[in-house]
Amino acid sequence: MRDLPHDGNPGTPDTSPEVWTGRATNRVQWLLAAAGAGCMALGIELAVDSPWTSGVTALLMSVIGCVAAGLLMLFGTLAFVHVAVRVDQDALEVRCGHIGVPRRRIPLDHVVGAAFAPRVTPYQWGGWGYRWRPEMGTAVIVRRGEGLVLELGDGRRFTVTVDDAEKAVEIIRDRLRFSADRGARA
After folding, report:
1. What pTM value is reported for the model?
2. Which of 17, 59, 125, 141 is buried most, with the most CB atoms less than 10 Å from its CB?
3. Which tens digit of pLDDT belongs to each residue from 132-155?
4. Rg (CA), the chain
5. Residue 108 CB: number of other CB atoms within 10 A?
6. 11-43 per-position pLDDT tens digit
7. Which letter, b or e, does each residue of 126-155 get, where b requires 16 or more Cβ atoms within 10 Å of its Cβ?
8. Sheet strand arrangement including 157-161
């Protein structure tokens, strides 16, 4: 931990950690991923061992449909099984799923405010995943529960569900105050 002035007084240390990390997990998404794997298995089974006599076109459409639906369900849900949030001195970064995609990085100098949201639900956003609603902004929703809401300088909002969101909001607010104080002294 470094001693950084955060309120304009040179002797007052910044007590927030260098890097804050948080996660949120949704175990229900594994059921949807299993359903996707089942669809893919059905498509492969139809392709390999098909007793269909009604024609190749119907078989081909069934195989492609099952495999495509399975891939969409499998990879679409695995991307949102969990979310990892990282706040450092410069930015908030959100990574989804096991490979970290989709990813969003928001520089803190683009943030004008941060708020704690005690109850964010998939219903409010139209489901799980990376969501956009014109009246609410964008969000990464992996489960219901607490989250943080960033007010961006261009008037947009970004919401993410994450455990210990209140601490993240506190740290972001400290960083914003420190930046404002540093800018005022310059």
Report:
1. 0.71
2. 141
3. 999 999 999 999 999 999 999 999
4. 22
5. 18
6. 344 555 689 999 998 877 777 777 777 878 887
7. eebbbbeeeeebbbbbbbbbbbbbbebeee
8. 111-120, 145-152, 157-161, 137-141, 129-133
